[in-house]
Amino acid sequence: MTLASNRTPSLIGHPVFAELPETVFESMSRLARQHGAINLGQGFPDGQGPDDLRAAAARALESVSNQYPPMLGLPSLRRAVAAHYRHHQGLDLDPEREVMVTSGATEALAGALMALVRPGDEVVLFEPMYDAYLPLVRRAGGVPRFVSLKPPRFRIEEGALAEVFSEHTRIVLLNNPLNPSATVFGQDDLALLAAFCRRFDAVAVCDEVWEHVIFDGRRHLPLMAQPGMRERTVKIGSAGKIFSLTGWKVGFVMAPEPLMRVLSRAHQFLTFTTPPNLQEAVAYGLSKDEGYFEGMRAELARSRDRLAAGLSRIGFSVLPSAGTYFLTVDIADLAADDVAFCERIVTEHGVAAIPVSAFYAQGEVKNLARFCFAKTDATLDAAVERLAGLFRPA
Questions:
Q1: How many of the other CB atoms lie within 10 Å of CB of 190?
Q2: Can you tell me the distance from the alpha carbon of 47 to that of 125, in angstroms, rounded to the nearest whole number?
Q3: Segment 220-231, tens digit of pLDDT
Q4: What is the pLDDT at residue 26?
Q5: Could you tell me if 321 and 10 are in contact, meaning their C-beta atoms sit under 8 angstroms apart?
Q6: What is the pTM of this model?
Q7: How far apart are the first and last CA of the chain?
Q8: Which residues 6+ apart lie within 8 Å of 292 measured at CB?
Q9: Domain 15-42+291-390, CATH
Q10: What are the extents of the domains in the chain?
Q11: pLDDT at 1 over 50
Q12: Domain 52-287 belongs to what architecture?
């Protein structure tokens, strides 16, 4: 008889994940709970989301089948996605062959990288970046090549691209609007990047979940619409961001049929499908008229301006926010390290923020902190009042 060993296994899980630290979002949210702080760190809005979408989901729970929907997604949602992007971004997509529904944009990103990256392929990443990108690239066997974007403009420069693109470049992963910096890439940035993708025969995976959350009259420009990019772009969107329903986790992927065939094979062995009642409700939401999207942007821009004005009034240097739920402040005059600064304000002043250095793998940007403004006026005002203590004489 063999006795069970009490020894700890030498390796528990894949090193890419086993050796990952706790995410900065979880760390700061935990500190916020411990200290009764106002959480302006993690990016989720106050409130329940649009009443009519929630009502549509409730109706669909009773009227739509709750068994497995088609692996690519409900036909109604795929048709709605194609129609939505035709209207808003001028894209011509085949809903049957070029649109797929996923359980959130992060699943779409994971599936795309698993499907398209071969061991040893180089993947171009722009930092600051969503913290899921790097472990997913490494787990897929990719070799990350970083382009470090610098504040306050966070622009793409030709020299930086020339340093990282090579004959081994397989994938370019672009986040636009850029979540950690609240910036939006315009025509010049996209044209430059598209030229490099064409020259080096690279596929662009575009995380465009914030495409509707842009301000001050800007319009989102999809990389897929650039010359020569239609056949080499995977575009990813998110109902959670469009409709302020982050917990629904309904994403959509758009790609030319040859790429979609490979993407769908990865998806079928990840989540396979997504709750059908939520899909039906998102299909309803995507057909909403222009007024909804304009109103959503206007309300978020108002909250942005309220928080920016409050932070500026008490002494912060606030960077422009062109999109997303976030704005950043320059803390160079207040602290030498953004992590220590964010820990200080959550423990001593009761407000949680995110250090922007957490979104860099090799950059040396340590003077920025990011706040979420997708909150009620009362929450934003209370946070400003608490943070005013940083500038009051001891």
A1: 22
A2: 33
A3: 999 999 999 999
A4: 84
A5: no
A6: 0.93
A7: 70
A8: 50
A9: 3.90.1150.10
A10: 15-42+291-390, 52-287
A11: no
A12: 3-Layer(aba) Sandwich (3.40)
